[in-house]
């Protein structure tokens, strides 16, 4: 019984510490401070903030043909992200990925980790212009 209580306290402490020092969300259209994966230009930044059963934005917009760095922040609950057709999968082990999307359109962003009762409705859109 004591091991269980200590384990739960440790998990709670880890969650509390991971929330400390969170930065304010960066808009998708703002350039990054660092260089892109190809070294030519700054990558666009898209920070996907996940809480229980929703993302912080209904839509994220990026420019076609430019490097985009996607990052995942689990603010509440445990989530993973998949962007269909854009070759982006993020989870706790892989929290960032930089890709170049050459095709304009609308892509579905979904939570790919079953996270509870509202999991099926945890969706957003990526708009590539």
How would you describe what is shown here?
There is one protein chain. With 129 residues, the protein is mainly beta. 14% of the residues lie in helices and 36% in strands. The chain has one helix spanning 2-19, and strands at residues 44-51, 54-55, 59-62, 67-74, 81-83, 88-90, 96-100, 105-111, 123-128. The chain has a five-stranded mixed β-sheet with strand order 3-9-8-5-6, with no helix packed on it. It has a four-stranded mixed β-sheet with strand order 2-1-4-7, with no helix packed on it. The protein is globular, with a radius of gyration of 16 Å. The relative contact order is 0.19.
Descriptive keywords:
1 helix, single chain, 129 residues, 36% strand
- Decide which structural class fits the backbone: mainly beta
Share in helix: 10-25%
SSE arrangement, N to C: HEEEEEEEEE
Question: What strand line-up does the widest sheet have?
Answer: 3-9-8-5-6
Query: With helices defined by DSSP (H or I, 4 residues minimum), what is the helix count?
Result: 1
Tally of extended strands? 9
Could you tell me the radius of gyration in angstroms? 16 Å
Low-confidence stretches: 15-40
Instruction: Give the termini separation.
Output: 56 Å
Percentage of residues in DSSP E strands = 35-45%
Helices and strands in order, then pairings?
Layout: H1 2-19, E1 44-51, E2 54-55, E3 59-62, E4 67-74, E5 81-83, E6 88-90, E7 96-100, E8 105-111, E9 123-128
Parallel strand pairs: 1-4, 3-9
Antiparallel strand pairs: 1-2, 4-7, 5-6, 5-8, 8-9
């Amino acid at each position: 019984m004591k091991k269980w209580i200590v384990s739960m306290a440790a998990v709670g402490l880890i969650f509390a510490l991971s929330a400390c020092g969170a930065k304010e969300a960066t808009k998708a259209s703002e350039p990054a401070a660092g260089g892109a994966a190809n070294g030519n230009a700054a990558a666009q930044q898209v920070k996907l903030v996940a809480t229980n059963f929703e993302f912080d934005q209904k839509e994220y917009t990026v420019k076609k043909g430019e490097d985009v760095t996607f990052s995942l922040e689990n603010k509440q609950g445990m989530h993973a992200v998949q962007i269909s057709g854009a070759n982006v999968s993020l989870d706790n082990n892989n929290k960032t990925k930089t890709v170049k999307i050459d095709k304009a359109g609308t892509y579905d962003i979904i939570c790919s980790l079953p996270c509870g009762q509202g999991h099926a409705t945890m969706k957003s859109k990526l708009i590539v212009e």
